[in-house]
Amino acid sequence: KDTWGIHHNGHISRVDVVERGAVSNFDSMGGLTSPMPGKILSVMASVGEPVDKGQTLLILEAMKMENRICSPVDGIVSAIHYEVGDQVNQGAILIAIEESD
């Protein structure tokens, strides 16, 4: 992920650039949160599984688009809170990951 600074009309904004189609939000407690409301189409991880930074963990359908939810860290999946077909709200904790040292 790259971060860019944009200067426009005297204001500076920071923009995080991620791989096209890849989405991830990570809270301070190790929870991977939903960036938007949607429906879980696919879960590609299981509890206890090691995951790599950038690995796709689930697919979330929102506004008729499929969004890959990716791990922002290397770690171990400690919990999966939703299953295929579930509707989720923005900010819902989808998967908990214990970050590797």
In terms of topology, how is this protein built?
Layout: E1 2-8, E2 11-17, E3 22-23, E4 25-26, E5 31-33, E6 38-43, E7 50-51, E8 56-62, E9 65-70, E10 75-80, E11 87-88, E12 93-99
Parallel strand pairs: 3-9
Antiparallel strand pairs: 1-2, 4-5, 5-12, 6-8, 6-11, 7-10, 8-9, 10-12
Describe this structure in words.
It is a single chain. This protein is mostly beta strands and 101 residues long. It has one domain: OB fold (Dihydrolipoamide Acetyltransferase, E2P). Helices cover 0% and strands 56% of the residues. The chain is built from no helices and 12 strands. The chain has strands spanning 2-8, 11-17, 22-23, 25-26, 31-33, 38-43, 50-51, 56-62, 65-70, 75-80, 87-88, 93-99. The strands form 3 sheets. The chain has a 5-stranded mixed beta sheet with strand order 3-9-8-6-11, with no helix packed on it. A 5-stranded antiparallel beta sheet has the order 4-5-12-10-7, with no helix packed on it. It has a two-stranded antiparallel sheet with strand order 1-2. The protein is globular. The model has no long low-confidence stretch (mean pLDDT 85).
